[in-house]
Amino acid sequence: MAKTFFRLQKFLRRIQFLLFFLTAAYLMAGSLLLLQRTRLVIQQGSRGTPTNQVLPVPEEMSRVGIIEPRTLQSPGPRLLVRMDALQEPALDQQHSPHWLVSRNSELRQLRRRWFHRFTSDQEPLQTAGFKAMKHTAEHKGTYMGCFTHDSRERTLKGAVFYDLRKMTVAHCQEACAERAYSYAGLAYGAECYCGNSLPAAAAKPEECNIECKGEKGSVCGGVNRLSVYGVEELRAPARRRRNVIYRGCFRVPENLTDTFPASLIQPNLTVEMCSEFCSKKEFPLAVIRGQECYCGYPTRRFPLGEGTDGLRCSGTRNASSAAAGQDCLVYQTPVQDTRCTDRKFLTTKSKMFVALSSFPGAGNTWARHLIEHATGYYTGSYYFDGALYNKGFKGEKDHWRSRRTICVKTHESGKTEIEMFDSAILLIRNPYKSLMAEFNRKYAGHLGYATDRNWRSKEWPDFVNSYASWWASHVLEWLKYGKRLLVVHYEDLKQSLIPKLKEMVEFLNVTVTEDRLLCVENNRDGNFKRSGAKQKNFEPFTQEMKDLINRYILTVDEALRGRNFSGLPREYVPR
Which positions are tagged coiled coil (predicted)? Predict the structure, then answer.
């Protein structure tokens, strides 16, 4: 009996091995067949594609091997080859937190390199039929033509906007019209530029051949080419929505003509008249002294630091009654200060690998906005956030270990992840504010607010219980394992922007001018200030939650002082 049972067991083992072998052979045969079919499709596409018109690939995208499918306007047979590889983020998430979806990093990198070789080996895809593209789909502006565009020396020198997913001609026109510009130009299918004078060098109409990301059938420029539209007829209705911001009453600088490049003397001068005049001249500041209007930027001569007593400017904010002596009224026009909007990747790999570390909801995106505009270099990210990439944070798609960015955003707090970096800026925010900001982001994105229903759900108490301890452990572990740290408190950065930002820039070993820092202050909010109805005196924290968070606050404060850093700001003190 035992001998029979042994033979049966031996037979079953052989059957199991045979099944495993057959399964492996079947999978290998299927993979080889798929690769063979792919090769045939590629060969057929290369033989059957016309060669009358070439669509070049933007340099910035080809550098990292990522090409947006919509920029390849001939969806021929070759596009059947793994187009989903285009949208894979170039990240190594081996050490990502548990709430992020893990992926096979090696397979992703191999697929990315393969597709980059494939697109570079084949001739560029064709764009026959692009001449038939519409220039007047759903928009009202006048099409002025196709012009050359140099990102380093822009021809439209006004505001700049990005939307690498939903850019349309109408969206760009409205954005420029609301900011008092006369022309709107689009490039690369997703970039919008504004200005008050046409570019000097015209290009061939067929060179503007890239379809808008958010509007099929419409042209949004090309590679180093601008599709330019006049928006004069849109400016009248847009004028109602323009936001002219009162900056305060300030002392008049010593030399007005050297400080302000443009001026106007007008009887019965009004704020609207001065703002309109300065907007046409593409200046972000309108300065009024009596019947005199001056236009310019915040500079060392006129830094807009401390204002004078508002009563000295008559308190009415009426232009004609403003003091004609040593004081003036200052207004922010709709025009964007563009002295600090140019950004690029590092030309050589950085020797220091710097992290911009924070707990989620602590203002990391805002800090990245400030750093990018102050230094002129992109920041990277340990993760990939499509919403941030679409709005102009181009370092999102650059591999976080490339060292082509000035610093790398991270929320990680493990020993291995921390020790990978040579130094770090540790950004800390009040945990009450951080928890609410992250909860808002989780349920309403970067710019919205969670609903009352979200706050009253059982998910909010669970969120606080799990995330409050993470807020504390994040700081404690960076203090323990960080090699070289600069601790920055969000509240201090918000209150004393230029001194703290200068400290951060020096830590990054970058030299910037005072005027560039003043430009950053002028654009301090960027496009990432939450909009919508914010509840006043809203208190979502129960006493039990406060007791828990307060214990963590005291622990972190003690740890900071133990490392000879300044303790937490007073407003962190238990409620």
Answer: none
Q: What span, in angstroms and rounded, lies between the C-alpha atoms of 490 and 479? A: 17
The neighbour count for residue 295, using CB atoms within 10 Å, is: 24
Mean pLDDT confidence for 380-385: 91
Name the token pair of 258.
């050297």
Which stretch of DSSP H or E encloses residue 366? helix 364-375
Q: Give the separation between CA 241 and CA 105, rounded to whole angstroms.
A: 47
DSSP track, 229-253 = EE-HHHHHHHHTT--PEEEEEEEPP
pLDDT digits (tens, 9 = 90+) for 271-315: 999 998 998 888 999 999 989 999 999 998 898 877 676 666 764
Q: Are strands 380-381 and 408-410 parallel, antiparallel or unpaired?
A: parallel
> CA–CA separation, 102 vs 427, rounded Å?
26
Q: How far apart are CA 350 and CA 348, in angstroms?
A: 6
Q: What confidence tens digit (pLDDT) does each residue in 317-343 have? A: 455 445 557 889 999 988 888 888 889
Nearest in space to 329 (alpha carbons), one of 314, 309, 313, 308: 313
Instruction: Please check the confidence at residue 80 and state whether its pLDDT lies above 90.
Output: no
Longest dimension (CA), the chain: 117
Return the higher-pLDDT residue of 509 and 91.
Answer: 509
C-alpha to C-alpha distance for 329 and 157, rounded to whole angstroms: 26
- How far, in Å, are 164, 197, 280, 319 from residue 286 at the CA level? 33, 20, 11, 11
pTM over 0.70: no
3-state secondary structure 422-458: CEEEEEECCHHHHHHHHHHHHHHCCCCCCCHHHHHCC
Instruction: State yes or no: pLDDT of 41 exceeds 70.
Output: no
For every residue of 299-364, DSSP letters joined together read: -SSS---S---GGGGTTT--GGGS-SSSEEEEEE-SS---TT---B--SS--SS-EEEEE-TTSSH
**212 in Cβ contact with 186 (< 8 Å):** yes
**And the tokens for 198?**
């046409």
Q: Would you state the pLDDT for residue 15?
A: 74
Displacement of CA 15 from its chain's centroid (Å): 58
Task: Say which residues have a Cβ less than 8 Å from residue 393's Cβ, sequence separation at least 6.
Answer: 365, 368, 372, 378, 379, 381, 385
Q: Are 302 and 253 in contact (CB under 8 A)?
A: yes
